[in-house]
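Review box. Two proteins, two foldings.
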Amino acid sequence: MQLGMIGLGRMGANMVRRLMKDGHECVVYNRSPAPVKAMEGEGAIGASDLDDFIAKLETPRVVWLMVPAAVVDQNIEALVDKLDEGDIIIDGGNSYYKDDIARAKRLQPKGIHYMDVGTSGGVWGLERGYCLMIGGEDASVAHLDSVFKSLAPGVGDVARSRGLAGESSQAEQGYLHCGSVGAGHFVKMVHNGIEYGLMAAYAEGLNILKHANVGKVSQEVDAETSPLRNPEDFQYDLNLADITEVWRRGSVVA
């Protein structure tokens, strides 16, 4: 299948690489030309500007935006008069889900379909695949099933959840049509909240372990710091690298 990608940062470029590896044709555009040239060298079809980008896409066109949330609307505005009825715009970044709903309404009179795809996988996605949380119309999602399947991790060697049997579902493949427009980014929003909460918990916990020897350290007296009670209780010189490594081996926090 053919797909156009706008935005060739670490995520966008690696997604193109993964798609091409699975046989898809990718037309690529970036505001700076160097990433386009680099992707051309790997087999992508480069575009010099948006007009060239649109001209190289077959109808119905599929345009995937992999750009910061702050510039999604200006990219859509630059595209909308160049697209035709039946074309599809996908926002694969981290937009607010209510913005997705508003964009879909603006595009509807022109017959342009809009989809939101929360994309998780980071710099490891090229090899491992991307977890995709999709919002949009049933027909548009079905049309792009082969693209989502190529980007997603697949079942791999992950053990099946208890109670599942028969043919693997989309969710087991690593992508899911969560619901109507906005649903994908709503699910990704909660996903990110959990992710950042986990990172904060790790950071705070490891900081406590790092300073578990504070009882050995001479403390300056100042107006902002409460004096340490029972310094004899904080005498541990801990190896954080070894602790985090042992946690990787069977611990529930790994």
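Next protein.
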Amino acid sequence: GMHVHLEYENLLHRSVFRNIEEIREVLKDHDQNNQDKMIISGIWTHFGYADEFDVDEYNMERDAWLNLINTLLNENYHFDMIHSQNSASYFRENQMLLPHHTHARVGIALYGSRPYSLINEERITQSLTVKGNVIQVRDVNKGDYCGYSFAFEVKNDHTQLAVVDIGYGDGILKSRAKHEAIINGKRYPIRALMMSHMFIEVDDEVHAQDEVILYNKDIRIDEFTFKGVGANSEQLSAMNHDSLMKEYL
């Protein structure tokens, strides 16, 4: 039969079983059913508050879950796999599994992003780079508008804007474009975002074909998470794998 894992909704209230009584009902029916059936091999929940330190909800959902697991195990139910910890919970528990757990679901940390800012950068290495290239550098003057709908008003004559071949169609969030990119080891401000291009204000050190870094170990995804751009997963999942060229190292 098909292996399934039972899900306890906990404080996230996203799906499936609301309490231990509902889980017991399924387990009892499963034990009494002698027909061909699914195999209940695991049980799990998801912590929605593991990255929140100013409220008690993580301890509440953690305690509720552990009480449920302890009760079921004391009633002689067995599960091959018990898992609940996301990256935030796993690091919050000093990279230790919770009691009776067999696995952790370390997701965002595998991509090199810290689930909360109290973790030192050295503990989680940024695992991907997102980059484009300068197509050309344009000389614009005070009063010029660049980008759609007056996106950027030029303040000084002979301002240099690099046109870069990556945009929101490739998955760069508009909120990310309010910050900087790295060119030749130096940070420059992004001034306007378009579907397949962006404008970056640069200086004489930037030229056509220079590499433009949006994310790497020196300009991390989680840096912009903590600046309010969007969750780590929001920035990552927006990436357009059809338009971006991929290189695996």
